[in-house]
Amino acid sequence: MFRTVPNYAIFCLAVALIAAPGCQTLHNAGVPGLDIYLKPDPEVIAREQAARDRYSLNHEHQALYWLLSHKIRNGMQLPEVEDALGETGEQTNEFNLIKSDLFQTTDVAYKWGPDNKGNSVVLFFREGRVVNFDQKDFVEAKTTSDQSEERPSPLE
Questions:
Q1: Is 7 within the bounds of a domain?
Q2: What are the tens digits of pLDDT across the range 111-142?
Q3: What is the sign, positive or negative, of the torsion defined by CA atoms of 102, 105, 107, 113?
Q4: What's residue 151's pLDDT?
Q5: pLDDT surpassing 90 at residue 33
Q6: HSE on the CB side for 145, CA within 13 Å?
Q7: Bridge partners, 91 (sequence order)
Q8: How many angstroms separate the first and last alpha carbons of the chain?
Q9: In angstroms, rounded to a whole number, what is the distance separating the alpha carbons of residues 83 and 148?
């Protein structure tokens, strides 16, 4: 009545389901090291280079945050981060007093900035790789005035 499915068929089906979404999906999910397998999108490369140039030339806040939110991922090594930001980070120990479960005393902090708004960004590295980094922290929130334009006031 029921036919037995060979193990190799189940294995092939599993591989196909895993591979079907492709490397781009895995890369977008933050899996580091897949850049070498992806065909670069010229528009994305141009946007990235423009942001890197604006940050390098003017230390533009928005350009730095764009690079952080689009190019930096947990697990990246320092040279990869420096290439992405277009600037060498400055090792700092002024953050060694932070009391948090997220950081260890052996973590090494590198600072970029200040940007044109006076802000510096500190990334922490453990065993040579970025740790405890969340790209969402660098997505620019809309200002209150932007939000008020989108929604009418309840008094109107």
A1: no
A2: 999 999 999 999 999 999 999 999 999 987 54
A3: positive
A4: 38
A5: no
A6: 0
A7: 110
A8: 70
A9: 38
More confidently predicted of 95 and 144: 95
| Confidence (pLDDT) at 39 | 74
Torsion over CA of 144, 44, 51 and 83, rounded to 10 degrees?
A: 130
The widest CA-to-CA distance across the chain, in whole angstroms, is: 74
In a domain, 148, yes or no: no
Number of structural domains in the chain: 1
Q: What value, to the nearest 5°, has the Cα angle with vertex 105 and ends 99 and 107?
A: 110
Instruction: Report the Cα 73 to chain-centroid distance in Å.
Output: 4
What sign does the CA torsion over 138, 39, 51, 43 have? negative
Question: pTM for the full model?
Answer: 0.65
The residue range of the domain holding 34 is 12-141
Burial state string for 61-90 with b = 16 or more CB within 10 A and e = fewer than 16: bebbbbbbebbbbeebebebbeebbbbebe
Residue-wise pLDDT tens digits, 138-151: 987 544 434 434 43
